[in-house]
Amino acid sequence: MPAQPRLTRPEDAATASAMGRAMNVLAALLLALGEGNHQFSMVAERTNGTIVTADFSLSVGMAPVRVSHSKKTYLRFFALLTFALEYSTVRSAVLVATTADEPFPRACGWSVRDGWLHPMDTRELQEAVMPCPEVAATLRLVYPAPALHHPDEPKE
């Protein structure tokens, strides 16, 4: 009987570096998306072929500055984001941000490559967020995701 594929364990330094990048990604997302109620959905394919998901809702207000979220869902989301950025145990990952707006919520997305988030093609994202026929789901307006500033890269 063949053995189950084993996941490699990332080095502690690599995980710590990815945790720092995950914090930078979250800060960059908040700056890029601004005020509002945001739903972050992340899907990752692990190196053993399993699919892992995490959802995280965040409400951001500027006057006064406030951020509210659920601690449990935040920790799951942050862990998945960290390991996606570290990428020794994750083959591919996508993050979609949906912001509550009238008349339809707005959505944009990023794929994880080279330890950072890169804007997704809007056509590909539109297909991903389009409700399936006969499934009750909210229609979302897709827009190009903003490039997220990486703190280690110089500003242009």
Largest sheet: 7 strands, mixed
| Spans where pLDDT lies below 50 across 5 or more residues | none
**Annotation, overall tally of beta strands:** 7
How do the SSEs run, as a string of H and E?
Answer: HEEEHEEEHE
- Which percent band covers the strand fraction? 25-35%
N/C terminus separation: 56 Å
The dominant shape is globular
How many whole angstroms does the radius of gyration measure?
16 Å
By DSSP (H or I, 4+ residues per run), the number of helices equals 3
Structural class: alpha+beta
Give the rounded overall mean pLDDT. 83
Describe the protein.
The chain is α+β, with helices and mostly antiparallel strands and 156 residues long. The protein has helices at residues 12-33, 71-86, 122-129; strands at 36-46, 51-62, 65-68, 90-99, 106-113, 116-119, 141-142.
List keywords for this structure.
156 residues, alpha+beta, 7-stranded mixed β-sheet
Give the topology:
Elements: H1 12-33, E1 36-46, E2 51-62, E3 65-68, H2 71-86, E4 90-99, E5 106-113, E6 116-119, H3 122-129, E7 141-142
Parallel strand pairs: 5-7
Antiparallel strand pairs: 1-2, 1-4, 2-3, 4-5, 5-6
Helix pairs in contact: 1-2
In summary, what is this structure?
The chain is 29% helix and 33% strand.
